Amino acid sequence: MLKTLSMAGFASAIAVLAPVAVEAASFSYFSELNGMNEVPANDSTATGLVTGSLVGDPDSWEFTYDVSFSGLAAELILAHIHLSAMPDGVPFTQQTGPVVHDLNNAPVNTGVTSGSFAGSWTAADVTAAGVNPSVVYNRFLAGQYYFNLHSNTPEFAAPGEIRGQIEFDEDAATVPEPATGLALMSAAALGLTVSRRRKESLVAG
């Protein structure tokens, strides 16, 4: 009877905890693009706005973006997501770094200074590039990435004309990874096994 109750308890634990292991998270964001956000800051009067979401788990996710911009000093020539990587020890908003994703469908080299477009970046894209998708996912939640639009002018072509950090709700940083639920299930199973053996030992004694 004790064994039956223990197994039933374990089954109940699985039923309660299993959803934690497979539930996908969803985080929305908006990013304002302007010259003051560039490093170093500039006096461009151009503006932009990006909205979107990060949906999924560390190993399988999709990051979406809807971008609008206006008033660039010259035509749009580059549109990227960069990694804030240097210098170390300062806020990510004050760091610069390499390009990690070219924005899909951006109207680059088409003569436009204003416009809008949408696209996405996925775990599959990252994996195909030889990068661990969970590393990118965690960097997203840490606020390490930023949008950067470059225009065809001497002062803005290289550093970018308008920039905006990608920052999610603060609660995003506390969401457990799928492994957490599995770890809890393992702990529950171990506890039930130990409890059963103790009871069987008492009966035998």
Report on the structure:
This protein is α+β, with helices and mostly antiparallel strands and 205 residues long. It has one domain: Immunoglobulin-like (Sandwich), CATH 2.60.40. It has 4 helices and 8 strands; from the N terminus they run αββββββααββα. The chain has helices at 2-22, 123-128, 133-142, 178-204; strands at residues 25-34, 47-57, 60-70, 76-83, 99-102, 115-122, 145-151, 162-165. The strands form 2 sheets. A 4-stranded antiparallel sheet has the order 1-2-3-6. The chain has a 4-stranded antiparallel sheet with strand order 5-4-7-8, with no helix packed on it. A hairpin with a 2-residue loop joins strand 2 and strand 3. The chain is globular. It starts with a helix and ends with a helix.
Helix content: 25-40%
Strand order of the largest sheet: 1-2-3-6
Mean pLDDT across every amino acid position: 82
Number of domains: 1
